[in-house]
Write a structure and sequence with these properties.
The protein has a domain of about 140 residues: Rossmann fold (3-Layer(aba) Sandwich). It is built from five helices and six strands. Strands 2-1-3-4-5-6 form a six-stranded antiparallel sheet. Strand 4 and strand 5 form a beta hairpin. It starts with a strand and ends with a helix.
Length: about 300
């Protein structure tokens, strides 16, 4: 990746859209009179690359990056870099099929900031990961060497030089990610230990209690089902027994009714015989009296 085009609008001393093209693949230099805005071009590049140290862009806050701090009617600053991405072997991961990569950073009053990657809204972390994947770390302390730092770099200790080489080679970012991942893992392990402690001291006893209550409840359900089954069986037996008794009583009633009918018939017969006997007795009595009168006369 290399810069093909730089577009500045509303950034520092560039109130109107300024387009800079014709970048050389190997070496570029910015020349001009004092106050002509040479340093602002470098600041604009660092701004897009996502630098977080405002002091390196000679600003105290983001408002200082807007033309005249937004007091001249310009309330937004935008910088766009168009990168040549024709070398597929050095392309960022996931963007190998793009001939060009466009990265835009915009800020606006009061405190609006956003990134655009190939015209689509993106996050700062995504843009930083893109640059780090091609060994470009804007927040490397030695990424931008200002005047007066050459001697300091030359007098660095071996460990500091090694760190600078690692930053330039792009390996330091993996160490930083490794350290960050370790810290995250330590936090997660600590949280897992806390959760394990809570699980062992609070949740597990309650869970065991609930399991015991569940077993008791299931046993109670089983006993209740058995009791209901026995109750249904008992009611069925009582119903069948009552029906049998009802049938027996019905038969007894019919037998008694038959006996009653027979008794009634016998009673009627006896009553008839009694009346016939009474009638015969009365006739016999009359005959006796009649014969007695005849004998007297």
């Amino acid at each position: 990746m290399r810069i093909e085009e730089l577009v500045i609008e509303g950034f520092k001393s560039y109130p109107v859209r300024t387009q800079i093209t014709g970048w050389d693949p190997s070496f570029n230099a910015i020349t001009g009179l004092n106050g002509s805005g040479k340093s602002n071009i470098l600041d604009a590049i660092c701004f897009v690359l996502g630098i977080t140290n405002m002091a390196q862009m000679r600003a105290q806050n983001q408002q200082d990056l807007i033309y005249k701090r937004g007091q001249a009617g310009v309330t937004k600053a935008s910088v766009t870099i168009v990168f040549d991405n024709s070398d597929r072997e050095k392309s960022p991961v996931g963007l190998e099929n793009y001939k060009q990569i466009t990265v835009t950073r915009q800020i606006a009053l009061p405190s609006i900031s956003k990134y655009l990657l190939n015209g689509h809204k993106s996050t700062q972390q995504t843009v930083q990961n893109l640059f780090q994947s091609v060994q470009l770390n804007i927040n490397n302390p030695n990424f931008l060497i200002m005047q007066g730092r050459i001697t300091k770099v030359l007098n660095m200790r071996p460990q500091e030089i090694l760190g600078m080489v690692e930053e330039a080679a792009g390996t330091r970012m993996f160490e930083e990610r490794k350290d960050k991942a370790k810290k995250t893992m330590d936090k997660k392990d600590k949280r897992v230990q806390e959760l394990s402690s809570i699980l062992a001291e609070e949740i597990s006893p309650k869970l065991e209690k609930f399991r015991a209550e569940k077993r008791q409840f299931l046993e109670w359900q089983k006993e209740r089902a058995e009791l209901e089954r026995i109750g249904r069986t008992l009611r069925a037996w009582e119903w069948a027994d009552a029906r049998r008794k009802l049938e027996t009583v019905g038969e007894d009633i019919r037998a008694k009714e038959a006996e009653k009918e027979t008794a009634n018939k016998q009673r009627k017969k006896l009553s008839k015989d009694c009346k016939a006997a009474e009638k015969m007795w009365e006739e016999s009595t009359r005959n006796v009296k009649r014969n007695g009168r005849r004998a007297e006369s």
